[in-house]
UniProtKB/TrEMBL annotation:
<comment type="similarity">
    <text>Belongs to the derlin family.</text>
</comment>
<dbReference type="InterPro" id="IPR035952">
    <property type="entry name" value="Rhomboid-like_sf"/>
</dbReference>
<comment type="function">
    <text>May be involved in the degradation of misfolded endoplasmic reticulum (ER) luminal proteins.</text>
</comment>
<protein>
    <recommendedName>
        <fullName>Derlin</fullName>
    </recommendedName>
</protein>
<dbReference type="GO" id="GO:0036503">
    <property type="term" value="P:ERAD pathway"/>
</dbReference>
<feature type="transmembrane region" description="Helical">
    <location>
        <begin position="142"/>
        <end position="162"/>
    </location>
</feature>
<keyword id="KW-1133">Transmembrane helix</keyword>
<feature type="transmembrane region" description="Helical">
    <location>
        <begin position="97"/>
        <end position="130"/>
    </location>
</feature>
<feature type="transmembrane region" description="Helical">
    <location>
        <begin position="54"/>
        <end position="77"/>
    </location>
</feature>
<keyword id="KW-0812">Transmembrane</keyword>
<dbReference type="Pfam" id="PF04511">
    <property type="entry name" value="DER1"/>
</dbReference>
<dbReference type="GO" id="GO:0005789">
    <property type="term" value="C:endoplasmic reticulum membrane"/>
</dbReference>
<dbReference type="InterPro" id="IPR007599">
    <property type="entry name" value="DER1"/>
</dbReference>
<keyword id="KW-0472">Membrane</keyword>
<keyword id="KW-0256">Endoplasmic reticulum</keyword>
Length: 204
C-alpha cells in the first residue's frame, strides 16, 4: 500500500519537478554506491572546453553532497519549492519554468568562473526558493520555531547554512541569480518603459 502511495505521489509531481528531483537523487545514489565520483561531476571549465566533458555543465547542479542531513534538507527544499513554484505561478507555463531554470543555471555558470565554486545544486535550490518567496510575500513561514514572512526565507536559509559551517557564497549566488530573474521578469516589465526581456523561445 505504501509503495502504491509513493508511486502515486511521484506520478502526481509536475514534470519539471519530477525530472529535476529524480536526477538529483539518482546522481547522489550513484556517488554513494561508488559508481561515479564527485570528481567526474564538478564544474571545471578547463575539462569542459579542452576535454569536451560537457556533462559537467549539468551534473554540477545535480550533486547535493553525500547522503546526510545537508542532503536531506536540500532535497526537501528543492522538492517543496520547485513543486510549489511549478504548480503556482508557473501553472500551465511549463516552458516558462524551464526557461527560468535555464536562465538561472546559465547565470550561475558564468558567475562561478569568478568564484571557483564546484557544485551549484544548493545555489540552484536557493534561487528557486527566492523566486517563490518573492512571489508569495505575505505567506507566513515557520523555521525551527522562528516565524517570518516568505521573502525572508532565503536569508534565513543562508544564516542556517552559515551556522552549519557551509560556505555562504553558494547561498549568496542563488539569491543574486534569483533576484536577477525576479527583477527581469516581475519588476522591470511593470516599470514605465519597461519590457519583458526573458521571452520563452518557441522550441520550448
Amino acid at each position: 500500500m505504501a509503495q502504491w502511495s509513493l508511486q502515486r505521489e511521484f506520478m502526481e509531481m509536475p514534470p519539471v519537478t519530477r525530472v529535476y528531483t529524480s536526477a538529483c537523487v539518482i546522481t547522489t545514489l550513484l556517488v554513494q554506491m561508488d559508481i561515479v565520483t564527485p570528481f567526474n561531476l564538478y564544474f571545471n571549465p578547463t575539462l569542459i572546453i579542452k576535454h569536451y566533458q560537457v556533462w559537467r555543465l549539468v551534473t554540477t547542479f545535480l550533486f547535493l553532497g553525500p547522503i546526510g542531513f545537508n542532503f536531506v534538507l536540500n532535497m526537501i527544499f528543492t522538492y517543496r519549492y520547485c513543486r510549489m513554484l511549478e504548480e503556482g505561478s508557473f501553472r500551465g507555463r511549463t516552458a516558462d519554468f524551464v526557461l527560468m531554470m535555464l536562465f538561472g543555471g546559465a547565470c550561475m555558470l558564468v558567475f562561478t568562473m569568478f568564484f571557483s565554486l564546484l557544485f551549484l545544486g544548493q545555489a540552484f535550490t536557493i534561487m528557486i526558493v527566492y523566486v517563490w518567496a518573492r512571489r508569495n510575500p505575505f505567506i507566513r513561514m515557520n523555521f525551527f520555531g522562528f516565524t517570518f514572512n516568505a521573502p525572508y526565507l532565503p536569508w534565513v536559509l543562508l544564516g542556517f547554512s552559515y551556522l552549519l559551517g557551509n560556505s555562504v557564497m553558494v547561498d549568496l549566488l542563488g539569491i543574486a541569480v534569483g533576484h536577477l530573474y525576479f527583477f527581469l521578469e516581475d519588476v522591470f516589465p511593470q516599470r514605465s518603459g519597461g519590457v519583458r526581456i526573458l521571452k520563452t523561445p518557441e522550441f520550448l
